[in-house]
Structure formats: structure tokens, C-alpha cells
Amino acid sequence: MNSPGSVARPAVIVLGPPGAGKSTLALGLCARFPRLGHLAPRRFLLEERQKGTELAASAFAILETQPLLPEEFFADVAAELAARGAFECGLVFEGLPVTVRQAELLWDRILGDSKLRVVTFVVSVTESTMHTRAGLRLSCEMCERAGRVAVEIRDADQCPVCGGPLVRRAEDSSERLVARLHAWRYELVLQPHFRAPESGGVFQEAREPSPVVAAPGRALVAPPPARPDEGVVGRSGRAG
């Protein structure tokens, strides 16, 4: 892993529909490279709610009336974290950006840094799998706040890992799953911003059931995610 101020800080973007495994991949990367700053929208909001912040109260109030937060919300959050030095050694954005507009905001505020090298992982599953995984899962907020990889739980009262209460995520309601799937399909529009050969960004995609890696100018059978400091990181990718 490169030290702060070096010329190859990784900016890893993990995208995918609900239930695709974004958290598993992002947390795995952060466990292997603990100096990476990790921004996961759900985990961030759970941590803020635990602290009782006004930001969390505002976000959850918005989510009571609409399925997604405004595009500027997490762009502002990411910029504030960057200003505090959270991404000095690189970053992992889990499920961000969601739209082209949000990609542009993140590019202007963070990802356009010439010392960052953008690597995009897209984890894709079928719509049927998404509904099966996300629509039926139960979550332990204590484990999520602690950054533990969730185990698949369908019918229980307590988390088998920490003993905490299990809840069904509000964002996994039928209405919100449809909205999130729509947002994911809209993400397909922005993917070329991260993988266009002229941008130099690196793009890897894993599809169900036969993972395939797609990078500028080549396609390979997908291996486990390569280390950001072992040749995966290319020239800086652009987001518009």
C-alpha cells in the first residue's frame, strides 16, 4: 500500500445491485488493506444514528418520504471525510456513485485528484437473485456498524455472531428494491466513464454465474480481486 502523498493511491469503486455482494467485496479489500478509507452509505448512516447526529436524523427523515437520498448528500459526506484526511492512503466507495450526476460530483470533489488511480469493480447478479437475497435477508446493525461481513440470515431473532437483534432493512422493501434496481440500471450509463480506454481507468466485472473481468482493451476469466498495489491500478480514470 502506498503511503500518503505517493503517486498511486487507489480509489476503488464497488458497484452492483442490491444483494450482489458489494459489502463482502469492499470489506474484504479493507481487511486486506486496512489503511484504505471506506465509505459505505448504509454503514455510515448507522454509525451516525448511533451517535445521534443531526446528519443521520436528516437522512432518515428524507428516506421516510423517498427511496433514495439526494445525489449531493454522499458527495458532501465524501468531501468532508476527504478534508479530514480519511482517504490519505486511498479509498473504497461501496455502492457509490449511483447516478451520472453523483459520479460528476464525486469526480469534481475527490476522484479527479491526479494522485488517485480509479479501479472499478462491478458485481452483477440476476434480478431474481437480487430479490431472493435482498428481499428476504435479515440484518444485524451491530455487526454492520462494526464492519463485519454479514452472514446470510433468513429466519431468526438474534444474530448468530454477536447476539444482537435482527431487523429487515427498510431499503429492502419491495418498493425500495424496485427504486434501487432502477438506480442500478441507470448506473450502467456511467460505467463507461470508469472503463473507457482513453481514461486509463481499470474496470472489472463479475457476473453470475460465470464471472468475467472486463478491463480496457481486454477480457479475462475473473480471478479473485487483485491487489491495488500489484498492477491492477492503471492511469487515473475519469468520471465525466
What keyword list fits this structure?
9 helices, five-stranded parallel sheet, 240 residues, two-stranded antiparallel sheet, alpha/beta, 42% helix, Rossmann fold
Could you please describe the fold and organization of this structure?
The protein has helices at 22-32, 41-51, 54-63, 71-83, 100-111, 127-136, 141-146, 174-195, 228-232, and strands at residues 9-15, 37-39, 91-94, 116-124, 139-140, 166-167, 202-207, 212-215, 218-221. It is α/β, with parallel strands linked by helices and 240 residues long. It has a single domain, classed as P-loop containing nucleotide triphosphate hydrolases (Rossmann fold, 3-Layer(aba) Sandwich), CATH 3.40.50.300. A hairpin with a 2-residue loop joins strand 8 and strand 9. The longest helix is centred in the last third of the chain and has 22 residues, at 174-195. It is globular and about 50 Å long. The two termini are 27 Å apart. The model is unreliable at 209-240 (pLDDT under 50).
Q: Span from first to last CA?
A: 27 Å
CATH third-tier fold name:
Rossmann fold
Which range does the strand content fall in?
A: 15-25%
Q: How many alpha or pi helices?
A: 9
Helix content: 40-55%
| Known CATH architecture | 3-Layer(aba) Sandwich
Strand order, sheet with most strands: 2-3-1-4-7
**Main sheet record:** 5 strands, parallel
Determine the CATH superfamily: P-loop containing nucleotide triphosphate hydrolases
- Integer count of domains: 1
Whole-number radius of gyration?
Answer: 17 Å
Low-confidence stretches: 209-240
Give the ordered list of helices and strands: EHEHHHEHEHEHEHEEEH
How many strand elements? 9
Mean pLDDT: 74
